[in-house]
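During the reporting period the student researcher (J.K.) took over the structure-prediction task from the postdoctoral fellow and processed the backlog of single-chain submissions. One of the processed entries is reproduced below for the supervisory committee.
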Amino acid sequence: MFIKQVKTKNGRINIAISQSYRDAQGKSKSRVVKGLGYLDEIEKHHEDPWAYIYAELQRLQHAYEEKQLVTQLPIALSESLRPEDALLVKNFGYACISKLYHLLEIDYVVNNRRRYTRTSFNHNAILKLLVYSRLIAPGSKKRNWEQRHQFFDRMDVTLTHVYRSLAFFAEHSDALLKAVDKRITRLWGRDTSVFYYDVTNYYFEIEREDELRRRGVSKQHRPLPLVQMGLFLDAQGIPLSFKLFEGNTNDRSTFAPAIQHLHAHHHSASRYIVVSDNALFSGDNLREILINGNGFIVAYSLKAGKDELKAFAFDPSGYSFMDTVLDPATGKQSKQLRQWDPDHPEADEVFRIKEKILPFEIQLSNLHGKKQTYKLDAVKLVVTYSPEYAAKARQERERTIEKTQKMIQSGRLFGSHDSRRYIHTASFSPESGEEIDTEQLYELDYEKLAYEQQFDGFHALITSEVDMPALQVMQQYHGLWEIEETFRISKNELKTRPVFVSLKTHIQAHFLISFLSLTLLRLLDKQLENRYSTKEILENLRACNAYYLGDNIYRFYHTSECLRDLGKITGIDFTKKYMTRKEIVSTLADTKKTDD
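J.K. obtained the following structure tokens:
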């Protein structure tokens, strides 16, 4: 607040206490808080008029700061909505993201490397815009730029600047990954005893392929050019590293380059175990792990496996099941493994597990690309049977058989390969029944059906950790759900697909932005101790909007337990109903400070 003096035409001086503020468009303006009258009138009633004026200024300033003033906002009931009124609503939930963004010192890395460029625009402002938007209002880069006014941070950049900055982000992608990994390790510690690895792909709504975007086996069953992405998570489910591959790259071929890329920016002093599904299961990949003294837990296909391993899985002896045992001394219940009895009436209704240590042969590629057999002295095979998994497999097969029978009745093959795999084709003569090449008969392949049914409910794992209990091996493997969930969030919640950029460097930058966004989201999730789903967290951050009322005052309507807990872990007060622009800007400024 300040003292405003206005000299009138008759020479008298009018004194008022005024306040500066910014309107919804950010323009600086002022308003009169209290008029004190003419100076000559004040002199008549006060021995020291200026002492009175300054005292009144201090009183009003103090009352304002202590929220003792009642603000009166004018309302024109006849006023119509205007397109620019959309600018009156801004998001405040991104303050949580800003807190972590600056704790990880992403701004420091970007600004440090920006010094060596000749560009005039602010790369850090653009990266903040793209990361915040990916979490708050995901869309294309153009859409993010058009909606930049939804944030209180000033992001005075052009759309051209946004696209030009993508090559810069791609160039310094590894540096950002290394810096983020280092800060996470320092602030919260990383559990790198286990690395989870998986591969997915993202489609592009284009027809023509190029060097990176190639047609392959789409996870979304879309016949469009793809990009493959290999992703590593640590034992806590926090993203660790990613690498892109051509869309037609076999999943198994991605592991060696991906783990080498991980080692380039993350140095693990201790031994680790790589956990993956059967996409990792190849001799060359296992060699890549073992040669550095590390371990593995990978899914093993019993269907494609050796007969002796199938026989071990189907042999009912040696299985254990999880039983609830009551301790009579303490009265507490605990879970213990007990021997499974196949003759028990409810034997097939319980989950069971067994293990076996055995030598194992793998196929390795030599210098000439030919395969050679190498024998591992000892690995552990863990086999489980789940009645729930068996029931699910039966339901899926019944749906497939239903589709298969429709094809047989129609006399033509259509649909997916999954629906056609149970069809047996025979050539026959309708009169004699002898096989000839004139007519084809499609019939259900009952032999194949019977063969596949015997595997319902069974799942096998191979691990180098022969001293690890079978139950612990299974529990470590089940941590893969985190990486599957991460892919789902990336594709559905953060709208990482479809990808609208086309240059190779721009594609790299696009997935870097998605990776950073996922990392920030996962950190929030872990600090909340998984009390809320990632969808709930995003919904609350996106709903935390501030509505401009006038006179620098914003009104909040959304509150929830999740939002209050987010405030507790980030030090941000999400309980206020009203906040001034000054308070909001001050809060956001505090999120950009690092304590260490």
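The committee noted the following: Residues 389-453 form one domain.
J.K. will present the remaining backlog at the next meeting.
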